[in-house]
Design goal:
Elements: H1 2-32
Length: about 35
């Protein structure tokens, strides 16, 4: 159970980081356009 929760937390953080990265790319694209 603990390992599962730990992995879930890591996946959640990784997903948030990925969303933030894609968000930055979107802002950059809008800046270019």
């Amino acid at each position: 159970m603990v390992d599962l929760l730990c992995c879930t937390a890591q996946n959640l953080v990784a997903e948030l980081d990925l969303r933030e990265a894609t968000g930055r790319e979107r802002y950059r694209a809008w800046g270019v356009l």
